[in-house]
Structures are given as structure tokens and as C-alpha cells.
Amino acid sequence: MNAPDIEQLERLCKQFRIDIINTLHERQTGHPGGSLSLVEILTTLYYTQMNVDPGRPDMPERDRLVLCKGHGAPALYRVLAEKGFFPVAEMKTLRCFESRLQGHPCPLHTPGIDAATGPLGIGLSAALGMALGLRLDGSAARVYAILGDGELNEGTVWEACMSAAKFHADNLCAVVDWNGVQLDGPADKIMPMGDIHAKFTAFGWNCIECPGHDIGALFNAFELAKKVKGVPTVILAHTVKGKGVSFMEGQSAWHGKAIDDESYEKAIADLGGAD
Predict the structure, then answer these.
(1) What is the pLDDT of residue 273?
(2) pLDDT tens sequence across 63-79
(3) Is 122 exposed, middle or buried (0-12, 13-18, 19+ CB in 10 A)?
(4) What is the mean pLDDT of residues 147-167?
(5) Confidence check: pLDDT of 274 > 80
(6) Which of 50, 90, 132, 169 could, after both became Cys, cross-link 63 (CB 3.0–4.6 A)?
(7) What pLDDT score was predicted for residue 2?
(8) What is the CA radius of gyration of the chain?
(9) At what angle do helices 3-27 and 73-83 cross, to 10 degrees?
(10) How would DSSP label each residue in the chain?
């Protein structure tokens, strides 16, 4: 990628963060911390990697994305809206009764959503099933699965890892949003995972680490992943929970806390969205 392309996507990311805060403040519900840490990962995928068409959201040849950490839905919805899957104005209906934008992703009514997620630990298995099904169909499509690092506590994640390696699912790319914080506190204190890179490697995966808020680095990691054959790839993306909002960064209290008026004003000022 060249510098102008990266700068354009960085501007989009700034706007996405402002809009996520606006939405969550207005609705007084949702998960700010883990949504803000996802922004560059999702933006890089949808703007530089994934073959998707808002006019044909169910086209068979599309790439798939499974947001395993389903509570990050506000970030996914905002990117999908910008891509044209539904109007940006629909963000105001987040978590409203009968809204298409439920608190966690659901494919039944929401264009661009490939899997229902919410209970942590189930998404990678679903993504693996998609990847193997696509291979049986002779499709060149790829499947991306985004996990939280706290989600790695779930044993089902590692069952999926074993299966993906056994079946040589090289059309599957997992991304760990490695922000170091989960609902109840620092991930290393809640359930220490040790050397995550070594664990994925031991399970037979190609493992890449990169800064998760650097679009150029993410782009290079995804490009490298596509070249690896015979094994699945995981990208360990080092991120910051609550990225861009000083008092939210690295704080477990903002995993799912409603944004009051005072905090909202401070957050918008931090993000450069104040008038």
C-alpha cells in the first residue's frame, strides 16, 4: 500500500471511532472498549482484502468474516454501513426492538453478516466449517475470523485450532484482537495464557504478529497469510482496548459500560470530533 491509501483509511478509522462513540452514547448500551480496538483490523480487511459486494451480500464467491467476539458488533456495523450494506443512519437503531442491528451479529436479517456470534468460543469453529465447505465447492474465497484475546480462554477455540491444522485449512485466517484486557480485568491475571505465539505454532498454525492499529502492517500481514499454503494462519494483532479515548484505553470498566454525558464529551474531544 502507498502512503495516500493508508492516510485515507486512517481518516476513515478516525470517523468510525467518532461514530461508534456517538452511537453508543445515544443508545446508552453496547461495548465501547472492544469495538474501538477493532477498527483498523476491520477497515483493512473490508477495504484492502475481502471480496464482498453490498449489492449482492450473499454472492457465493464472497469472502466471509466471522466476528467471533460478537460484542464488537458496533465497529463491524459501522464499517458495513460505510461499504453500503445498509444506510449509515441505521446505526441509530443499534439494539432497538426489531432493529436489524442487534447487540451481537445475526445473519438472518442483517446484510453482510455471515455468522451469529455472541457466546465466546464458537466463532472459530463456525469459520472453519465455512472454510472447509468452500474448499469442497472448489471456491477461492477466504474466511476471516476475529477473536478477542480473552476468548482464547475457551477450550473450544483450541479444538477448532487442532481441526483446522489437521484439515490443512489454508483458506482460513484468524485474527486475535490482542488488547490485553477482558471483561473483569487484565487478561493475564484473569487466566494467564503464556506464550500465545508458541501455542498457535504448536497447534500447527502459521503465526504472524503485527501492530493492530497500523494499517500498513496489517495489510502486509494479510498479504503474507494468503501466500501460506497447507496450514491455517493466525495474525496476533497487538491492539489497545478503547483505542483513541484516553480514559478508556486499557480499562476493563469500559468493556461494556454505558457512556454518560461527561464521558461522551471527553471521548469526542480525544477523538478530535468536537465542533
Answers:
(1) 82
(2) 999 999 999 999 999 99
(3) buried
(4) 97
(5) no
(6) 50
(7) 83
(8) 18
(9) 120
(10) --HHHHHHHHHHHHHHHHHHHHHHHHHT-S-HHHHHTTHHHHHHIIIII----TTSTT-TT--EEEESSGGGHHHHHHHHHHHTSS-GGGGGGTT-TT-SS-SS--TTT-TT--S---STTSHHHHHHHHHHHHHHTT----EEEEEETGGGGSHHHHHHHHHHHHTT-TTEEEEEEE-SEETTEEHHHHS----HHHHHHHTT-EEEEEETT-HHHHHHHHHHHHH--SS-EEEEEE--TTTT-TTTTT-GGGSS----HHHHHHHHHHTT---
Altogether, the residues listed in the chain come to a count of 275
Grid coordinates 500498513 are at which residue? 216
Q: Which residue has the cell 487478561?
A: 187
